[in-house]
Amino acid sequence: MPDRRVLTPVPAPVEAEATENDGLRYLRSGLRHNKKFPVMEIFGPVIQGEGAMAGQPTMFIRFGGCDYRCLQCDSMHAVDPRLIAQNASYLTAEEIGQKLRDMTPAHIDWVTLSGGNPLIWDVSELVKELNEHYMIAVETQGTIWRPWVADVDCLTISPKGPGMGEHTDFGVLDKFMDEVDDNIDHHSGVVNLKIVCFDSRDLDFAEKVFNRYPSIRRYLSVGNSFPRWLETHAVADPVMQEQLLRNYRWLTEETLKRPKLFTYGEAPTVLPQLHVLMYGNELGR
Question: What is the value of pTM for the model shown?
């Protein structure tokens, strides 16, 4: 296993402190803003850096708001309520769609809805509009179900393990997965599981998740141990790249030693975070 000294999780900044009711406040805020949503970034085209769509050209819409407070979050600017209040653009579904279309080259077919947790928001009208022009990907930790999820083309469910500094409530995740079962055909290739791994605890967690939901495609992703809010490694540098590659080597070698990750005819795909290797923590990447 690689040297973990630089990977020790560091406390979240004071600005990240928030209560579990923030998600409800965000929802009420959206209603007060006449169906406008806090958009932190619309950018692209870029190459998706991880998970089932790694290597796929896509546009990105990053929404503000999350019901988790991961210590190792690499998008704290979309989670911290104070930063969201300071920097979000409140846009209607129509405005988001128009801005995206204005920015998207004709040859790009995908758009990824990200956050934070984009499922905090009822963006059903936006998804309906986007479906006329794009293939849609979305990533969530699996805590809040929205009916519009059944209309996307790639759903990545990424429960958070111990290395992220969060606790996954399996009762909540089970309810989310029940909705997935009822509304999406697993065999369509739409649904996948992704576990971000920082250390062996996360591989233990991955074994539990993969065995609990055995019929879904599974991915392991190397965690970004250089959180963006530290304001260091804003761009890729040799120190960061070397450490991330060492972690990737560790993850691949440890995965091969764990048969419980290979159950029910499904083998995990083990990937680095390509965007972090290439660009570090640059915004818009």
Answer: 0.85
